[in-house]
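W.,

You were right to be curious about this one. When I first looked at the sequence I had no strong expectations either way, so I just let the prediction run and decided to look at it fresh. Below is the sequence, 712 residues in total, followed by the output.
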Amino acid sequence: MHISKISLVNYRNFANAKLIFNKGINTIIGENGSGKTNLFRAIRLLLDDNLLRSAHRLDENDFHRGLERWQGHWIIISIEFQDISQDEAIQSLFLHGTGNVGAGTVSRATYNLIFRPTADIRRRLSELTAGDHDGMAAILSGVSIEDYETLFTGKSEADFNDPAVYAEIVGDFKNSSFGKELDHPAIGVRVPVMLSVSKEISFTFVQALRDVIAEFQNNRTNPLLNLLKRKSGEIDPVTLLPITEKVKDLNDAIEGLDDVQTVRSDIVDTIKEAAGEAYSPSSMSIRSDLSDEADKLFQSLKLFVGEAGNGYEGAVHELSLGGANLIYLTLKLLEFKYQKANQSFANFLLIEEPEAHIHTHIQKTLFDRLNFADTQIIYSTHSTQISEASTVENMNILGKVGDGCETYQPTAGLDPVDIGNIQRYLDAVRSNLLFAKSVMLVEGDAEEILIPTLVKKVLGITLDELGISLINIRSTGFQNVAVLFHGDRIKKRCAIVTDLDATFFDTTPTATDDAALSKFKAKCASAQTKGVARKTALDAFSHENPWVECFYAPHTFEVDFVDAGNADQVVSAIASVYKDPATIATAKAELESKDIAVFGRRALLMANYEGKGWFAIALGNRIDHQVNIPDYIVEAIHFLRPVLSTDVWFHILSFRVACIEKSGLSTPEVIQSTREALKLFRAGDMDLPGIKALMLVTFTADPINRILDKAG
């Protein structure tokens, strides 16, 4: 038996979310604040028998913040199971509790937690005439959290993620329309407490470790103590009898020491002197705190670990953070093993962010080796090392969207060939594209090295700060990766940035061409043909997919970089490429030429001299804030981040003004007046078009204007 689907409606940062799971190991990945902890708590509310029953009593803070008002709405947490065991006991549980209606035996079952208004509130809403907004408002205004109830149901067939189904069961709040069914049959049958699924399964939750030392010091959460308590009940008291007798003798010996008795007598005498006989204790003794009860004696054991390899074993609080976390995780896994040994129906292990303070190699090894038989494991993580070792088909991605969260299944609707290509790519290359807010795909070392540098130099912020991950796909093929970004899969923007490789000179062979020129012409002509074919294929691939758009360098990155007005930037890197003075002089003259056939060829020659990657590094060390970002890259950035906040624009423009001031390209008076205008812009007293116009007029030649021109 395994979880196949989880549906969340109106729960915390999930307005309407669906997650799909498979047997074995599953991974939940997402950035901080995307809802991983909330998801795990939702699962625990249904399956974790160790969670206090009071936790099932939700409150107004558990409602999704995007609701105009929470009163009247329902929170629904639904888990679907598949491959239900044919065991008579588990079949009995699901047939009478959570199985499908009318089934003789069940292979699929649902289990739901529903937090809804009490019957009286639901009845009053059902009696309203459709469209009676005032009546609805009057009822809901008097609703408090005390007017809510929690129930568990099974045998439900409803698709709770369908807004139409929600409107039918709960009500249409927009149109103030409520059905007459107070207990709609689609929500299923109430599950009796004695048939709780959580009592019949093996379930262990390993929480994210914020303070592992505190967990060891807390008797309720100390995993070693829990293990020892479990084992202490299995030990034959006769086995421990000789030990407990020795403890008694030891306690008696300690208590009988002359110094101990002297201190006891002195305490008795002193308290009588201070309070008198009438108010003094009737008796007093000093005894050893070492218990002589077998189970308590066993549970008093402490764990000591040698970490440094020098023979010294220290307490847990003496370990490194990573060492302590690894020990804690190990004990929780052992706790799961003990529990699993006593269960047969289903086994679930939830591990929240196991990567905390643990070395990257251990993270990957941990994920590879944690594969218990007959157990469904669900990780949450924002570790690229763990996600690298995950199977993409078993991933759910959480993405922050405004105040809420959306869930994505990256392989939904893909055929096995596409899935295999993606998996091999993620195995070979870092999987950080799965964590990105938006993705720019490039296929060259020059773009990978220089685009982040260009953005930092011109905008004063990084691509990461803009929420853009730049991924070099190299020879993988754009479509094999970009297929992830789609309305059915990951709904995040993906910009494909590539070269058209159009020739910038006449490639027609002539009789006067030497061998080198003939080869160069043939290579450029072939590249142009391939560029046209690549554009045709990519345009067809991205057509009608709003999440993917292609941006093309007219020629190649190096040629179009110079053509964007960056000849001086490339000239500054000549000495890192050539050593011969005559060659340096020729290269400088050609780069400063206005003829693209001349400067374009020189730019390519320099890039290819010792490799484009090496040239990009050399160039990146020399470009400054006056560099111009080529238009097609600017357009890609605007596609990925179509709207920037006022604060981000303020930061960027303040950076540009500081660069201009440092360069001495304007007067102090103009600089000051521009800063005053920026303050007005930040305060909302000037709009973006106004500040764009001001920058263009005041600093006409500044590279920022090329970017502002395309800003919405």
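Here's what jumped out at me. The longest helix spans residues 515-542. And, maybe more interesting for your project: The two ends are 52 Å apart (CA to CA).

Coffee later to discuss?

I.
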